[in-house]
Design a protein that fits this description.
The complex is a heterodimer of chains A (about 160) and B (about 100).
Chain A: H1 5-31, H2 33-40, H3 50-69, H4 74-98, H5 115-149
Chain B: H1 5-20, E1 33-39, E2 57-58, E3 77-81, E4 98-102
Antiparallel strand pairs in B: 1-2, 1-3, 3-4
The chains are: A mainly alpha (about 160), B alpha+beta (about 100).
């Protein structure tokens, strides 16, 4: 896989989309915290931890926004995003398969989406985050190799395959 | 600064979206003491002998969210009564009750 400006753009746009998603849902959940707590208290999976989750989840989402925003912590932000999106996707899949009650605990306008749409939405973001982590690692490795060489990189060699 | 540009745009967009998304209906509260009973969607009390709270609770102990308690829905609601209910009458006939939350 080549490291190219296109890959850098994919990483940056994915980071921006994740920031948009987590900032919006985090703010919405905090704003409607009582309603969010009530809804997740009806979920068979997280009901025992409804109080903690209703505060912790939006705070984690907003912390992830900060991590994704700062270039030096972007990689950690991507990994936390991947873990969160995977958990959300598994949770939705589990609820769709095994639960008769489907309380929607999502924030803001995302509440309007059906659970099936949510599953597709989450799978899309999970895959996108996974791809971005891979591209980000490639870009970082490319920079590290060039820094290690202590020589200016020739234009023609900039897009060489590094694997 | 260039590295932060897209991220900052995303944060500002999220804040703008949040600002223009109407907040969920605010929780109404008062301090009227009531006894709370589970009520089926047809209006009948599920168990008139056993209020959910053995002692009168104030309405503020429950989240009032009438829009989630839809008539004809399969799920039960919780209603507050001023006094202990002694007969299994339909809860919809009573005037002092109040739909309070989906069970």
């Amino acid at each position: 896989m080549k490291s190219s400006p296109a890959h850098t753009w994919i990483v940056e746009i994915t980071a921006a989309l994740l920031i948009l998603l987590f900032a919006y849902t985090g703010i919405s959940k905090l704003r409607d915290q009582e309603i969010f707590q009530l809804v997740i208290s009806k979920s068979p999976v997280v009901a025992p931890f409804a109080m903690i989750v209703s505060w912790l989840l939006p705070l984690i989402e907003l912390s992830t926004v900060l991590l994704l925003l700062i270039p030096t912590t972007k990689k950690i932000g991507f990994w936390i995003s991947l873990v969160m999106m995977t958990i959300f996707t598994c949770y939705i899949g589990f609820m769709l398969m095994f639960s008769s009650k489907l309380p929607c605990s999502c924030g803001g306008i995302l509440r309007q989406m059906s659970w099936e749409h949510h599953l597709i939405f989450n799978i899309f973001f999970t895959v996108l985050t996974g791809i971005s982590i891979r591209l980000y690692n490639k870009n970082q490795l490319f920079i590290a190799i060039n820094r290690g060489s202590r020589k200016p990189v020739e234009k023609s060699k900039q897009f060489l395959q590094i694997n | 600064m260039k590295n932060y540009f897209l991220g900052i745009i995303a944060v500002l967009t999220a804040i703008a979206f949040s600002a223009f998304t109407p907040a969920h209906q605010s929780v109404k509260r008062d301090t009227t003491p009531m006894l709370w009973y589970e009520v089926a969607s047809n209006g009948n009390l599920v168990d008139y002998l056993n209020p959910i709270n053995s002692t009168p609770a104030t309405r503020s102990d429950f989240l009032l969210n009438e829009e989630t308690c839809i008539e004809g829905d399969e799920e039960d609601c919780v209603r507050g009564f001023d006094n202990t209910v002694h007969t299994p009458t339909s809860a919809t006939d009573r005037t002092e009750d109040d739909i309070i939350q989906k069970d």
